[in-house]
Batch of 4 targets.
Target 1
Amino acid sequence: MSRRYIPKVVTANRLREGDVVYLTADNHWTAHHHEAELIEDEAHAQLRLLHAAGQKLVVVGAYLADAKAGPNGPEPVHFREAFRTRGPSNYAHGKQVDLTNV
Amino acid sequence: MYDYTDFDEAFVRTRVAQFTDQVERRLDGSLTEDEFRPLRLMNGLYLQLHAYMLRVAIPYGTINPRQMRQLAYIADTWDKGYGHFTTRQNIQFNWPKLPDVPAILSALADVGMHAIQTSGNCVRNVTADHFAGAAADEIEDPRPYAELLRQWSTDHPEFQFLPRKFKIAITGSPNDRAVTAAHDIGLRMTRNAAQEAGFEVFVGGGLGRTPMIGHLVRQFLPIADLLPYVESVLSVYNTLGRRDNKYKARIKITVHETGRDEIARMIEDRFAEVRPLFGGADQALLADIRAAFAQPNLQSRSVADYDAAYQANPVFRAWADTNLSAHRQGDHAIVTISIKAHGQTPGDATSEQMRVIADLSETYGYSELRISHEQNVILPHVAKADLPAVHAALAKVGLATANVGLLSDMIACPGMDYCALATARSIPVAQEIALHFEALKLEHDIGALKIKISGCINACGHHHVGHIGILGLDRAGVENYQITLGGDATETAAIGEKTGPGFAYDEIVPAIERILRAYLGLRLHAEETFLDAYRRVGMDPFKRALYGDEGHQDAA
């Protein structure tokens, strides 16, 4: 039996600002992990990654990150990705404040 | 200090113009990221977890007040009001935006600074003893040699595509404060039987995945042979170094695989070819550079005010006891400004703190400053009479922490709070250790101790040479911290030994406490440092303290 595919989100950094972003199902880039498209099929994931990699003037370094379904949308699985949703732990810098000020 | 010549100025300005164009072409789509990445890295620009990061070189840790103020200006204008001093004597800005980077580089060029060769497989920023030019134990100021190496290695056509990055460290003192044994080339000044100054040359040291202490390949290298010899080392490495596997590409692996004797022989053979090609221009240049590093004209001052303050003010006395080092002129001192206030991020200075440091340097410090690899800032020449005023001014901006050389004077790399390579966080571990022992009031009782924390195997936090080293790893999706004991970054360099299984994030501070309580219980007297005690008793008592008797056997 083949192993179950771990769902993914497409994530990257914005080219100009460097901010962490996620690809939504309707082809936007969002700062919110829970708004990302949760991809449960490997072939579809590769297509979405190709789509992201093609947006050379918008994002940089796109990759697939493990994720899981949560009550408000996709949640990160690994602590590294959890940190990327917030920003550093030593200062109130990055998304943890930027997103609340939007 | 050395000021840029017209040549240096033109070189840096040309590079800024070139990179400005490259950024424009990246932003308009003319360059892909694959094309742009090596170009931005050549100019110190990384993409990290949350943002870009710009790494600015502070050659051999020497910086003047005007430059420090410009770093503060950059922090305020294009970043978040602070900068991070690193173990490579660089400063990193954690939040620049790509379109702003050309303006930042231009602002750096205005004060003779740049980010060139702070990344990539080239000769990186040459690091030096942070007490250079001031230390009582110094044979010679090593910075003229570091500057000579900087000029020689900058854009050196033969060494722009080395198998891997290449780091040179230099000390002018027998007491090694520059961790020379853990560099690709370590240079230690020494004297021969005729009392001439020269260098002991170590090759193949390094930390990271495969930590190694450098091998002595030349007992005495005359000063006039410095450049041809270093060029020969690089030439041999450039030929032999492995380009097939980046984990085996550093010169430490080359030396390990080839053998110290064979490498030394190959270097000498190459040196015999290279030496005649150096016709003396380098020595003429060195003479000019030396003049630029002429010592400031130190005034003789009474130490009566200092002695009075030392007697009267216990806060000043505590600071003087930890943060001052012996200056070669008895009525002066070297001040280490701790950028390690308990609970703060090691190495982070705000723009306000940078400006105060610049002001103090001008008012009391002959306009000299150094950045240490231990992530502190040094005022190398301060008359003892001025120390009470310096201390008072530092206290106003949170820079008078009396902890240099103590537990909370930790090295910590940025770790997974910033770094894209990190496997775990470093900074909050450092913060919590400092706060925990501050609350216990044990720091001064424990005494001299070097804790060094890295957030991944690459060891930017020098954990292998910490008396206590902490390495953050990802173990099955959870942060886990491995401890090493007995590391030493000085002239008696040693790689620390692993204690056993690692500890979870919420277990690491209690684990460090168990080690240090064991030390307090077993030391012979208060003057026996942790490192001395470890060397006397070995690992076992600490393993028992960490894992218990049963776990100790499992761990062993």
Note: Residues 42-53 of chain A form the longest helix (12 residues).
Target 2
Amino acid sequence: MKPNIKFLQGNEACVEGALYAGLRFFAGYPITPSTEIAETLSARLPRIGGKFIQMEDEIASMCAIIGASLTGNKVMTATSGPGFSLKQEALGYAVMAEIPCVVVNVQRGGPSTGNPTHVAQGDVMQARWGTHGDHAIVTLTASNHQDVFAMTVEAFNIAETFRTPVILLFDEVVGHMREKLVIPEPGDIPLVERLRTSVPGGVDYHPYLPREDGRLPMSDFGGVHRYNVTGLFHDMWGFPSDNPGVVHGLLRHLVDKIENNVDQLARYKEFYLDDAEVVLVSYGSSARSALHVVRNRRARGEKLGLLELQTLWPFPAGIVRAKCARARSVVVVEMNTGQIMREVKAAVEAPEKVFLANRIDCSLITPTDIRNILRLIQGRGV
Amino acid sequence: MERCRLVFSGSGGQGVITAAILLAEAAVLEEGLNAVQTQAYGAAARGGATRSDVIVSEEEIYFPKVNEPNVLVCLTQEAYNKFYPIIRPGGMLLTDPRYVKIERKVDARQWELEMFRTVMERIGKPIVFNICMLGAVLGLTDLLKPESILKVLERRMPAAFLDMNRQALEIGLELARAA
């Protein structure tokens, strides 16, 4: 069969991935540089019997996808920094009530309305800790359209497997750039479908009673079971509880279901790490510049490698530690003031060998920027 | 094929981004090459300096922006003033004398083609100025086959507009051949 090749924007690759994964409901409030996700889905979803709603704002969009997910649909919303800030309260609700959903943040310059049409990676920590309270979250990213597609499918699979919101943290360069995407055939990438309860109607269903494997089967809201959903700490029936045992047990569960599966959730790519004396650690569009440098320097015989992170949260500290263990220096390449660098420093055995190659002027970090940092840490000057 | 880096620049609404997309799409879907297209623009929908970068290569492309274009197209004076210094020595600069007064020599082949005037005389619709420019670029560089662009136009354009675009592409190729 002739491969299905497209030439499109990263935002459209995200849409293709979401539809492949089974997206049926999207609510959003368009914002640069994520707008093409809403625009494309407004045309595509109705044609396959799905629903697209342009809501009055980002908060309502987040709430709408939570409700739609409870009724049994795969759901998504998309935004950028300012909208992502607004979604944080409801995002926490989805964490607490364990509602599978996918939230895309195509990052632009910030804080506030910042720089709408230019690139930044300043929302990494917001993805981790933007909503209040102790919690765990899954955040994925990608540097090219094939991976945007794959990570979007992964996001839906992880959301269903772990009953959790998953954040797709892309950036303006990847979102707006156009390049090739080969759309996989149906079945090429396995899909995780909603785990539904086998409890029949008329029999008590406990929405928050884990099975032996820890998973919580769901019942489509509005279907055969009546149950309660709340942002308060709750018992196995979903009713509010301030019983310290219940509170402790639920918070432990919410954190452990993610943090105990760090390795299972880790997605990354490695380039020339086997004998690398200098390891670049990067993600998103920055990783393209890093890979450009690595390929060029390797051609000249320099022992440079790249660890490209695709799972940012939970942070794959064990993998980063192992991959950087033999490196003389580690250079984190990102477009913020060092949000992932701090995680890398905490992960490796010798934090003093970790350096930052960054750019915070809403321009894509260039291979020259990275080469200059490499020369500086090698004591060779720019 | 040697990697080719192009920058199309002008003012918002002139269609430089569209032209860049058509070129990159034709490279990928019609000629089996790799291509990456990016753009830089402000928050305004019209006006303001617009720039679109395209890299075409047989190899994988990582860094997607163009630092030193082999091919630089400037369709406004503002774009020319801003971008002419970045052209790669030995590269190619294409401008239209209706919009750009060349102020100094750069180390590049400089082509001033009357694209806008010819389009207005023969088609009468400024909307296909960008397609004429694309034809001129193909004529001057042999980067892709003109039929590849035509195939993309056929896929994307409503039938009623196709003829006008085909004509504009042909005018660009003619101007390049005559240059």
Note: The interface with chain B takes residues 5, 7, 32, 116-118, 173, 176-180, 285, 288-289, 291-292, 295, 364, 366-368 of chain A (CB under 8 Å).
Target 3
Amino acid sequence: MHINKEEAFKELIESFLGGNPDAFVKIATLAHADILNIVYRYLGNLEDAKDALQEVLIKIHRNLQSFRSASRFSTWMYRIAVNTALDALRKRKSQICLKDRYLKDTKELSSQKENIEPYREMMIKSAIAQLPRRQKNVFILKHYQGLTIEEISNVLGCSASSVKTHLSRAALALRNKMEGKV
Amino acid sequence: MRCPSKKDWVLFYYQEKDSLPREILQNHLLSCLACRNDYAALSGFLSRVERKNIQISEFELDKIIATATKPAARPYEWIRRLKEQIAENLARAKPLIYKPQFIMITIVIAILAAIAPFTIYKPVRLAQEDIAEVEVELALDDNSNLDILSELLGPEDFNENYSGLSIA
């Protein structure tokens, strides 16, 4: 998250808390891409990701008054996005369904391997879905969102060394799983 | 130099610092073929993991934001409505004393409270009476046995030997 974006958030939040409801529309417009990308990586399909985005925005809208500007807005927002995505996974009997769906999809795709790009992407999605929760959290925030180790440790509430360990384990586990498959 | 760990190479790929400085790792890559191959495989794999951004149309975004900011769309709204309904119903409800169920239950409790002491102590009292009755019978049996003995022995011998056992 760029510093400029963070400052823009700060100004918009002040404006919203000052009684300008339109400021929230701007906050949502500015934040939606990051939120959508995170929840999509967890949920694996766009429809569920849109539902999760809506839920995240509802939570932000409802709790923005209790947000303390001592911490960064983006950190707070990422935390809500990760928790919402994990809740959504739990609700739909989570990873088992997701894995099954991916496996079903990959079976369909494996019959048409000439379409190699979607096949590989699907295999990677499946492999990420099978990662342990902490490794998946760290990998998504680092690889897809490009957060720093420190930012990830703030979002997930764990130490930087733990983030580093989970990141390396996730990357190596994914590589091992994908070896020979793509 | 010993080869860096796999964790070091993952962090090197993501340009994050760990125990080893970046320059040392870069120099090591130049000198160690095994690490160079390993890192090439790792970085090749990670660079192939797609990072394209997911996007939605402006129309969809507007719809989502409108729903998110609409008070009625908030979750837990139904809990608030339910609480209000319960409070309203309670306010309209008759006082408890006028309810027939309340009167019936009160009468039953009063009757039970009146009967309870007798029903509870009765079996105990009966048991004690039974014991007393048996004891009396046993005592009577003893007397009759002594009578028989005194008849068999004769009054003189009986008084001589068993005078202490005679029962008044």
Note: Chain A has a mean pLDDT of 83.
Target 4
Amino acid sequence: MKYQTFHLNRINYLILIFLSIVFIPNVKAIVNPTSNFYVNDYANILSNETEEYILNKSVLLNNVDGTQIVVVTVKNLDGLSIEDYALELFRNFKIGDKEKNNGLLLLLALEEREFRVEVGYGLEGILPDGKTGRFQDEYIIPYLTNDNFDEGIKNGYDAFYSEIVKLNNLDLEYTEPKGNSSNDGPLILISITVGIILGALTRVSNKKGEITSIYFIIFLVLFFIIPLYAHLLIINILAFIITVFIDPSLIFYTSFYGGSSGGSFGGFTGGGGSSGGGGSSRHF
Amino acid sequence: MKSGLKVGIVIGVVVLVIALLLGGSYNSLVVKSEEVDNKFSDIKVQLERRKDLIPNLVNTVKGYVTHENEVIDKVTSAREKLASANSLEDMANANNELTSALNNLFVIVENYPDLKANTNFIQLQDELAGTENRIAVSRKDYNDAVSSYNKTVKSFPKNILASMFGFEKKEYFEASEGTDEVPNVSFE
């Protein structure tokens, strides 16, 4: 009898199907970030030493001011131009800080023999297109034409790395205090918990209707007073409604879907940055 | 007493639903309309940048290329058209004309190895290519924003709000047909 609660009725199924659709991973030709995030060697042309070297330096740089340098090698571009591929990849990876947009992508396509440096909005000032082209010509392309991919990428990575550190006057000893970007996580949890507790109390109470309507009125008032936290309120009211009217166990499914869509825990991720298509491309 | 409360609850819920629907719809219209305007100003910034790069390029090219005045003049005149374009369509057309004029210019440059190896020229070419790519990106972003906005304006129940508050359909950034065709350059 205890297992009875896990039998889902039709409405719950519908909600589950809806959630599955919302959180279904989008299937695209573009590669996804590995758990290393900063170095993604899909073409298998980098040595372990180079990968580790890039990873360590990028992690350090990210700690200083959120600048993210990402290296990606792919077997081919799946029919896209390298500009389109780089842009989509840049935006999917969300390279760079959300506010500063200080991301940099070095992309190599092996079959097409093309290389592109894609620059986030925030770095365009110190890395104009002309300079990224010159850096490629000086530090990267000479190696790539001789199929010396590992050295070319490491050399080019170093050139861009030093340029950013120099021109942005970065102090590599410094570690930026974490911003409020991830502070939403605990708030969402609190919001769900409060919703469930209120909902559970309402569920067992014999004044279901009264409590619910009072809750709705408070919700409505708060919704218009603090629009900044509207998403938390909506999460809260959803948890409340589900607990009161449908089935509290559904919350666990919901959190499961929400959690699994969060991606790889423990690895490195993008900071939410974007690019407007700046940078330069080379054939080698 | 008891039934009065029930009526109150029902009215409360109805008001809540209407308020959420209307408030949300109006907000999303405003947000989407602003998004379109933002993306449009992105395009304008990049078009401006492209325009500013041309004189530099033309001067560098003129230092090496002496007998191709017609091709160079076409670039200059396309640039002037872009500078004086006001409407969305004129801008898109002038931008396309400039693209094909520049393409013709770069075809000719192939015959001048010294110019091709000139670092100043390479840098200008990179800046131009980057700007062109940015224009392509901002145009796509703009058109996506317009498409999403237009869909919202047309869909029920937001279309009622849209007509009440004067939200109108917005124009795509598209050149009229034929302007992006590259005319043949003949070498005699």
Note: The domain at 32-164 of chain B is CATH 1.20.58 (Methane Monooxygenase Hydroxylase; Chain G, domain 1).
